């Protein structure tokens, strides 16, 4: 699915877009199931185990910003999580043995889809080594106007930035006032439906509000090298059977974590607003995307 040039680009930049990973039929099935879930959200009044809702959600106009752990909600999401094309790419970029972590479906509806402030996934779930990546499945054509994932090249090789609010609580976002990275160097992950993005767990990324008349639904899967073990107690496996069931390909010693000298900042004390990243980020004092749209200088990264 990818060549050595693409592998080197991922190593250099910390993210990559690969087109034609899913077929048109597979994308159509994902859309149909997602539409059904949004329709069922009419009966939901507040966040629950399945839905994270936009402000302004009503039974008459359902507004869903996230489907939580979709691989547990419908078999189609579990099937795509195990897609052989995705696993083949991960085996070249991450490790020969891949273990699954979790999933989410971030939905930016036309005209109002919520922004996600700048952050590093690693701040939420540090492990014993940093061979972790998130795969975003493009359920729609993604362009600059409908809130694409924005990644800052090379930041996966740098420090883990502060993701705590002014009172010391984890908030899952970087304060843009600190200017710790060059936000205008951000590159968008663009491509037709059926493409995927892959970004390293330490890559700084975010996304602006969807200002277009088209949706942007991004199905996100978190994967890790099979010998990467979580350092946050709440993320530790409840049993060896559960842990072993997450192994998707390759072989590994199930009780031998690989330890690497990677920078770690624990997400503690926990966020004052528990739940999705949207809730965690509510205590961030300075919003980047609340006062500006995507960076003015946005080179196309294909």
Unreliable stretches (pLDDT < 50, length at least 5) are 291-302
Indicate how many domains the architecture comprises.
1
**Helix content range:** 10-25%
Order of helices and strands: HEHEEHHEEEEEEEEHEH
Secondary structure class reads: alpha+beta
Oligomer: single chain
Total strand segments: 12
Question: What is the CATH class designation?
Answer: Mainly Beta
- Radius of gyration (CA) equals 18 Å
Mean pLDDT figure: 93
Q: State the CATH superfamily name.
A: q2cbj1_9rhob like domain
For the terminal residues, how far apart are their CA atoms?
15 Å
Q: Label the overall shape.
A: globular
Strand fraction: 15-25%
CATH architecture title? Sandwich
Q: Count of DSSP helices?
A: 6
What is the fold-level CATH name, i.e. the topology? Jelly Rolls
Largest sheet: 8 strands, antiparallel
Element layout with pairings:
Layout: H1 4-13, E1 15-18, H2 24-40, E2 51-53, E3 64-68, H3 75-81, H4 84-93, E4 98-108, E5 116-119, E6 132-138, E7 150-151, E8 187-188, E9 196-200, E10 205-207, E11 216-225, H5 240-245, E12 247-249, H6 277-280
């Amino acid at each position: 699915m990818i060549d050595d040039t693409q592998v080197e680009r991922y190593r250099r930049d910390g993210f990559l877009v690969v087109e034609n990973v899913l077929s048109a039929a597979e994308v159509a099935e994902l859309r149909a199931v997602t539409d059904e879930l949004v329709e069922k959200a009419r009966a939901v009044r507040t966040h629950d185990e399945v839905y994270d809702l936009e402000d302004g959600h009503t039974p008459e106009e359902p507004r869903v910003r996230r489907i939580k752990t979709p691989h547990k909600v419908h078999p189609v999401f579990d099937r795509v999580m195990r897609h052989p094309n995705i696993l083949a790419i991960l085996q070249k970029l991450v490790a020969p043995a891949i273990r699954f972590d979790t999933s989410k479906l971030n939905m930016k509806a036309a005209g109002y889809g919520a922004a996600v402030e700048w952050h590093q996934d690693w701040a939420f779930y540090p492990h014993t080594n940093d061979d972790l990546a998130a795969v975003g499945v493009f359920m729609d054509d993604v362009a600059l106007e409908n809130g694409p994932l924005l990644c800052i090249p090379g930041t996966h090789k740098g420090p883990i930035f502060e993701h705590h609010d002014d009172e010391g609580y984890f908030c899952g976002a970087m304060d843009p006032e600190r200017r710790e990275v060059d936000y205008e160097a951000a590159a968008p992950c663009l491509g037709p439906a059926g493409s995927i993005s892959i970004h390293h767990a330490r890559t700084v990324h975010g996304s602006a509000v969807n200002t277009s008349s088209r949706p942007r639904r991004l199905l996100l899967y978190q994967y890790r090298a099979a010998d990467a073990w979580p350092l946050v107690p709440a993320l530790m496996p409840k049993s060896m059977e559960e842990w072993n069931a997450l192994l998707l390909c390759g072989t590994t010693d199930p009780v031998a974590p690989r330890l690497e000298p990677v920078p770690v900042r624990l997400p503690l004390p926990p966020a004052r607003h528990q739940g999705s990243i949207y809730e965690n980020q509510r205590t961030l004092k300075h919003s980047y995307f609340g006062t500006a749209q995507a960076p003015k200088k946005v080179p196309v990264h294909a």
